[in-house]
Design brief:
Elements lengths: L7 H10 L5 H11 L9 H8 L3 H16 L6 H16 L3 E3 H11 L6 H15 L3 E3 L8 E3 L2 H17 L6 H12 L3 H9 L4 E3 L5 E3 L10 H12 L3 E2 H8 L3 H10 L3 E5 L2 E4 L2
Antiparallel strand pairs: 1-3, 2-3, 4-5, 6-8, 7-8
Helix pairs in contact: 2-4, 3-4, 6-7, 8-9, 11-12, 12-13
Length: 274
């Protein structure tokens, strides 16, 4: 059996049904993990539905997961997923952004499910087999999966290293090459590591840098107009600037007039001051 032959919804149905869980427990598991829906049901919602406390819902969920997990590797589909996962995670340095993992598996398994529902189903299976480990969203990182503390720590060192050194997007590639060599990894792994960061991002014109920089994360009309003119390198009419950045022409014109970084070079046409 290969990965693309597995129907994840049927595999989950089999996992739940073979455990002989009662109807309420099955409904709680399906709701908590959203395996039949694009969203996960909260403890409170399930508690209200079944007239039990949130803590009782949590207890039922925990006990049911233990029962479903029993002898799970006797199921061929689970073994195929598990073996593929080990190779997949190893090839990206032991760390993978959650969204990327879900997207990759969605394509590899040739799923026709709603992507959110598919993601819920994959999460359910990974939590059952306890591999890899999910690191949940925080101030520094997005949700990501890792296969060992060593890989997670290595990712953190590379992340901190590049953030401490980068000062502008033009030097990013050169610094990345140096750091790749220093940490003895390849570019594919480095990109996988950096993708989990909330502090590093890609700007609207493909530049890579810190998300706190205006060129990476322009928030105001002025910042967007400045970045556009910097990239095109030629004067533009304010109405064309407005179209390019998705704003209203009068608003853009007003912002250009107020900022001395912009120079009027013709009737309604602006460039950057040199």
């Amino acid at each position: 059996m290969t990965l693309d032959q597995i129907k994840i919804n049927k595999t989950i149905d089999h996992l739940i049904e073979r455990s002989n869980l009662d109807e309420r427990t099955q409904a709680i598991i399906r709701g908590r993990f959203g395996v039949d829906s694009f969203r996960q049901t909260t403890l409170q919602e399930l508690g209200n539905r079944f007239k039990i406390t949130r803590e009782r819902v949590r207890q039922i969920e925990s006990q049911a997961m233990t029962e479903i997990r029993d002898d799970i590797f006797s199921i061929e589909e689970i073994n195929v997923i598990h073996e593929f996962l080990k190779r997949y995670i190893e090839n990206v340095g032991g760390v993978r952004l959650d969204n990327y993992l879900i997207s990759d598996f969605y394509n590899l398994m040739k799923s026709e499910d709603n992507l959110s529902t598919f993601g819920n189903r994959i999460h359910f299976v990974l939590k059952l087999i306890k591999y890899p480990i999910l690191s949940e969203n925080n101030e520094i990182y997005h949700n990501f999966w890792y296969d060992s503390d060593e890989a997670k720590e290595k990712m953190g060192r590379l992340h901190d290293d590049i953030i401490s050194r980068i000062t502008n997007s033009e030097e990013f590639n050169e610094i990345l090459k140096e750091i790749i060599k220093k940490h003895s990894i390849n570019e594919h792994v480095a990109v996988s590591y950096l993708s989990v960061s909330k502090k590093i991002g890609v700007g609207p014109y493909g530049d890579i840098g810190l998300t706190e920089w205006e060129e990476i994360n322009p928030k105001t009309v002025r910042a967007k107009a400045y970045l556009l003119l910097k990239k095109v390198g030629v004067p533009m009419h304010f109405s064309d600037i407005a179209k390019a950045i998705g704003s209203h022409a009068p608003t853009v014109h007003n912002e250009l007039i107020k900022d001395d970084r912009f120079v009027l070079t013709g009737r309604g046409t602006y460039s950057l001051r040199k």
